[in-house]
Amino acid sequence: MLGTLMRALLFTLLTTGEIISLQTTLSFSQTANPAQAQPSTSVATFLAMFGLVMIWATNTHHLFIRAMVDSYQIFSPTKGVMLADALTFMIQTVTKSFILALQMASPVIVFALVFNIATGFVGRIMPNFPVFFAATPLSVLFGLSIMALSLGATGMVFIDHYQEFLAIFIRGKM
Fold this sequence. Notes:
The protein is mainly α. The chain has one domain (about 1-165). It has six helices and two strands; from the N terminus they run αββααααα. Strands 1-2 form a two-stranded antiparallel sheet. The protein is elongated and about 70 Å long. It starts with a helix and ends in an 8-residue tail after the last helix.
């Protein structure tokens, strides 16, 4: 149960990467993702690996092991699983993960919105100018630059939410 919930939490970074890829026109570049059984975009794969490195670098993986041991107090092997509660908790986790993914990708989303509106104005003002060919490299360059500048904050926000999530399962933290 805890493993499934942790996987849903790690999908936060994959979703963030997919959103950033869509906003920076990099969604066509697919790579093999070792953390997933299917390919994903290069940015999503990078963010997923970045999240795993952050978990190991901040020694938060010890919290996961402790939460795994303490989860047997909540989900005892001798008792039945409370399906309604487990389903509600899983839905809340997926919802919070998606909201967190949107929050972590918000700098790039705001940039893409402003950039695309400006590109539309340029295309309207100068209809013979090939706006797409001029705007695509700039979109990639500026979008990845904004992602790189916000990478530290993204990692810390992810680790904070990761620790908050694990605190639910650690005995004495409820």
